[in-house]
Structures are given as C-alpha cells and as structure tokens.
Amino acid sequence: MRVLTLLTDFGETDYYVAAVKGVVLTLAPETQIVDISHQVVPGNLAEAAFLLSAAAPSFPAGTVHLAVVDPGVGSARRILVAETGSAFFVGPDNGVLTPILRDAAVTEVTRSEIFRTGPGQTFHGRDRFAPVAAALLRGELPASIGRRIEDPVLLPLRPVRQEADRITGHIVHVDRYGNLVTDIPVSWLPEGPVRVQRGAQSTSIRATHYGELRAGQPASLEGSLGTLELSMQGEHLASRWSAKAGDEVVVSWRTNPSV
Amino acid sequence: MRVLTLLTDFGETDYYVAAVKGVVLTLAPETQIVDISHQVVPGNLAEAAFLLSAAAPSFPAGTVHLAVVDPGVGSARRILVAETGSAFFVGPDNGVLTPILRDAAVTEVTRSEIFRTGPGQTFHGRDRFAPVAAALLRGELPASIGRRIEDPVLLPLRPVRQEADRITGHIVHVDRYGNLVTDIPVSWLPEGPVRVQRGAQSTSIRATHYGELRAGQPASLEGSLGTLELSMQGEHLASRWSAKAGDEVVVSWRTNPSV
Amino acid sequence: MRVLTLLTDFGETDYYVAAVKGVVLTLAPETQIVDISHQVVPGNLAEAAFLLSAAAPSFPAGTVHLAVVDPGVGSARRILVAETGSAFFVGPDNGVLTPILRDAAVTEVTRSEIFRTGPGQTFHGRDRFAPVAAALLRGELPASIGRRIEDPVLLPLRPVRQEADRITGHIVHVDRYGNLVTDIPVSWLPEGPVRVQRGAQSTSIRATHYGELRAGQPASLEGSLGTLELSMQGEHLASRWSAKAGDEVVVSWRTNPSV
C-alpha cells in the first residue's frame, strides 16, 4: 500500500479535497492518503513550500507528495514531478516545490492522455494533478509521463548570512502555539549564550525544550527541524511580539578575542 | 477495499466524527474513509446537498456516501439508502439527498436490528447511520435492509429559467476563494459575449480559467461542475459583492434579430 | 489492518499531525489512521481527556489511541501506555489519560531505543509517541517496551454529588451546536419531572431527542454518552446562557413525602 500526502489551499468547507481523493482512489485504489494541511493561505507558495519540506522527511520511502497551491490554475504553467532518492513530489511549476528541487530530478508532465477532461478548465487538482499522482502510485516512472527539465520556477532565495559574531536569518513559519520557526540551523551557532533579536525584541535565554521555560519568558531553542525557534511558555509569542513569517532574526554572541 | 465518504455538520472539535468512523471500522474493517466536509453550517441541508452531489462523481464505483446533517435526529424521520448505477447514498429523509434522488432507487431502512442502542437517542450518526453504511460496505443490498419507497422528502426546487435572451439561475455555493458557483449550465449559453448580473453588480468578461483574469476584475467562466462561476483574480468576490448562496444571477446577451 | 486514533492540540495549519502519521506509517505500514480532533485548545488536558474517553468505545478491539496534548514536552515527564481489555492508550503522564486509567494496566515506556532522535528535543509526538504507538500496532506488548507503574498523574477529580432530592454535577463539554454535556448519569435520575439549573438559568422540560424540542426552549435529555445534556432547538445554548465547561449543574426534584 503506497502513501499519498496532500497539501492544498482548498480549505475544508468545499468539495475540492474530496474530489482529488476520489480521483486518486479511482485510479490507484490501494492508496493510503494523509493530509498535510488544506489551510494554506490561498496562493501562499512560501507557506506551502515550508510545510511540504517539513513534513516529507517523516514519510516512508516511495511516498508521493502532492501539493496543489496554484493561483495560475488553467494557464500554461507546467506540471512537475520531482524525484528525490526516496519520494516523489507533484505540483505546479510555480515555486511551491522549491525546497525539494535542489536535490531532485525534475520532470515536466507531457503525456496529457492521462489527464481527465473537465467539466471546466479550473480544477486541475482533480483533472490533472490527481491522475499524475495516481500514475506514480501505480508504479509508473516520471520518464514514462514526461520529459526532464532543468529550469523549474524557484521561489526567491533569502539566504542566511553568517558573520564572525552573528547570523542573520528569517522567521519561516509561525505555528499554532505562536512559536517562531526560523531558517537558522542550530548547528551553525556556538555553544553557550547567544542573543536572539527580532526587531526591537530580544531574548538571551536558551533552552532545549518547552518544559524548561518559565511562564512569560521568551527563549530560543532547537526546533523540530533543527533550526532555531523562539517560544514563550504559555503564551502566543507571535502575537506578543507582532512577529510574522518573513521577519528578519539576528543571533549574535561575544567572540573570544584571545582565541 | 471499499470507500466510504462522510459529510456532516459535526465540526472538528467534537468526538462525533471519530465515533461514526469507529463504528464503521468495527462493522466493516476494510473500509477506506474519506471526509468530504464536517464544516457544513449546522442544519444547512442545501449546502450539504450541493457538496455531496459535487464530490460524488469523482469517486470509484461502489462507493458508499454517508451524509449526516440531521436537525430532526431522534424523531420519526426515515433513514434512506439511495442507489444509483454506481454508488450508494445514505442519509436522513429530510432532503439532504435531493440531487441524488432524481435517478436513484430509494429504500427506507426498516431492519432496525442492525442499529446500535445508545447511550441516548440523540446520536443516530453513530447508532443508526454508521451501521447502515457498514452493512452496504460489507456487500448487503438495500433490499435486504429495507423497503422501496417513492416519496422521499425533497428540498424545494428552484429551477433555472431560460428565455430568448437570458437565463436566470442562482448562486448555489460560495467557495473558499470567494468564487460564486451557480446552477446555470455553461452548455446552455450562446458562444460569444454575455453579461452576468447579480443584483446591482455585473461583468461582461468571460474567461476559461483563473490564470487569465486580471487583478480586481470580475469575470465569468465555466466552473468545475460545468456551471457558470463568477470569480475575481486575487480577491474574495463574494465579500466584495456581498453575495451569498441563494442569490439570483441573470445571464443576458444580444440576440441576432435577423436569424 | 490495525486502527490508530489520533488526538492532539496541534491544529491543522502546521505539519505536526502529518509528521506523526508519517512516522507511524513508516514503522507500521498497514495502519488505518483516524483523527479524533486536532483542535483541542492548546494544553487543555480536561478537554482532551473528555474527547478521548467519549470516542474510544466506538472503536474496534485492539485499536491504539494516541493522545498528544503535552505542554511539558521534552521535560522528564513519563510516556505511558494504558491497556484496557480492548484497547491501548498512549500519552504523556500528565493526566490526559485520566478517564482511561481507572480500569487499565499502566506501563511507563522505558525502552528508549525505540525512540527517534530529533532534530531538536521539542517534538515528542513525532520522535517518541509515534514510535511507541507503532510498536503496539506491530503487535508488541506493553511489557516489552516498559515497566508497570501504579502512580500515573491524574487530573483532579470533581465527583458528582448525590443527595435525596438533588444531584450536583458539571458541564464537561460544550459541543459545536452549543449543547451542554454534563457528567450526570441519566440513570441516577428519578423518572418524571426534574429541574435542571445552571447558575441563574434553568429548565424543567425533559425530552428524549432534539427533534422533540420547540425553537428557543431549553430542555434536558439523555446525551450520547448516557449523561444529562442541555440543549436548545435551533440555538447555541452555551452562548445564550454564557455557559462553559466546568460550570456546576444542579438537578433537583420533588420527593414524595409519604414514601
């Protein structure tokens, strides 16, 4: 039994998610379907790219991940299959697969006979993406449904900047608890005390897990992706600090002048 | 492995959806369960009927669709099984199955031995509907659990009206993106320009897919059910126009006086 | 195929739920996963305990129920497996399993080799609870992954008080429809009229199901757990009465002085 994950901005009040699943189960009946989220803010490619790359490593080898966040649906934008060593990723060629594409072989789907026809030309999730995912779930290889490309659309890169006494990165996600997830790998930080600053706010408290924190105290710790996370025990730090995805975060420390 | 879809107004903060699934998996273990939605506005039969009829065609033959939107739960209203050529639909006899009933053989469930008993008499989703769905999923036929009827309750019909130079229909659904889905089949419209009016607002722009639209411009296109849809690129048209399900929509065009 | 239920306060906008499921499907591929809810108010152990104990009885024998509501994640709090005659329950030792523990054999998980290592120490749902659930789903017994304990953490008990002419209990849950679910077993009440009071509001109307109620009239009935429930037809009674989980409810009746 193969696994399909599904990530969309369809919400949960429409029939769209169910229609995609129905088509997959029609074409690839023995599929185990797991939702990542359908609550992506409509058209927010960066949020979808983050969630996809965060969830994917937990899934079994051979999983097919389908991401349908597609504001240009129906236009000429390509449909991509990205193959990494261990999984397949299907999505529109609009940057939503960016974090995956670095280490993937990328195919543009060209075998349009596998698509369904309508009704309408607005629901590619049901009519195109679901059949592509189903083909992979049935064991077809990317080469059999398209041709290799080297120029997929990428989201603009915002690199993390390393200097002698500081690292500058960004908030990439605010989670339900108000934790601020950054793109700064904790392995890049020195041992010992660091100061983490976001706008006018900052904290010098460093922890290893939430249970250690005192109520009302902001602190930094290694989050579940190995990157720096900012958290406040019992409070929604993002609201408290008015912080949001995209904000810059600076980690600084005293360097030892004698070494 | 058979597929069960589930559509309710139970929401996602209670244990109700899980209890229904638990009973189904107890009685019909090899079932693949797919949620359509549990966010139907409590008691909104028209919304549920729309979602059910929109999602069902995408599912494999033999799928059992269970719709539990049932404000009169516990009263004497009947429990129905509707059988179309390709699927089974289970729901209360309150109109929620209306769009399905036109072409279906309808059975009232009378074999009450298959029901569970309580606790309480308020949770028919768990105690009655789930066992009925499970019986069908195990391969029982409607005839073995009830008797044919010809008088199911139907929601009031609001027909689409065709005239020489216009068609009058309705908004049947507002989706997450603010698109206005109507009940007007696009195949009924002439080729070429049409004017689509809803209250004081209107548009004469016609498109085939969202990617074509310019920001802030309302347009009509063929939606994913083959009916006319109104959409505005990058904006929630329903909010912008204060439009809602039930509103009347008029499509008009110039007729050629010489033909 | 074994069933796993999942109950968390992770919400549905993060990748957390998917990551837990991915690990389970990696370690125990043939698992059928059913969500109870992921909308528990962050850290609300009483709400989670209620939902878990309400949903569990509907599931097949052998089901593994995993509850991750864990504000102290990463601290030294233990990880528990509770085994009842018919199911396994996995959760942190913080009281979330309270209603289950009364009749269960309780094991503290000590075989840490089954845990995954990070990234980070903040996501025990993915790194510890999921592997424990997967071990049970693969057929391992609690004894093989831990040691029996007798002192699990319990939520404070708020007993229902019985007197000659009254019973005092509490609202334990407000459901989506605004119904007030109490902890007062209906089997403890006398036949005939009772008065149900919550703060300054009360009702003397007793019903067996919602369909009986008249619009705008509050009434009491036997809910889907066998306990007393307060409901108002077509209205959200909790909003109307400003009632919430934890509020005291008093049921009183006239005793017959001659008996």
Q: Largest interface, counted with CB-CB under 8 A?
A: A-B, 36 and 39 residues
How much helical structure, as a percent, in the residues of chain A? 10-25%
- End-to-end distance of chain A: 57 Å
- What does the main sheet of chain A amount to? 8 strands, antiparallel
Overall description:
3 copies of one chain form a homotrimer. By secondary structure, chain A is α+β, with helices and mostly antiparallel strands. In chain A, 19% of the residues lie in helices and 31% in strands. The radius of gyration of chain A is 21 Å and the shape is elongated. The first copy, chain A, starts with a strand and ends in a 7-residue tail after the last strand. Chains in contact: A-B, A-C, B-C. Chain A binds chain B through residues 9-23, 25-26, 29-30, 33, 42-43, 71-77, 118-123, 126, and chain B through 1, 3, 5, 12, 32, 34-40, 51, 54-60, 63, 173, 175-177, 186, 208-212, 221-226, 229, 234.
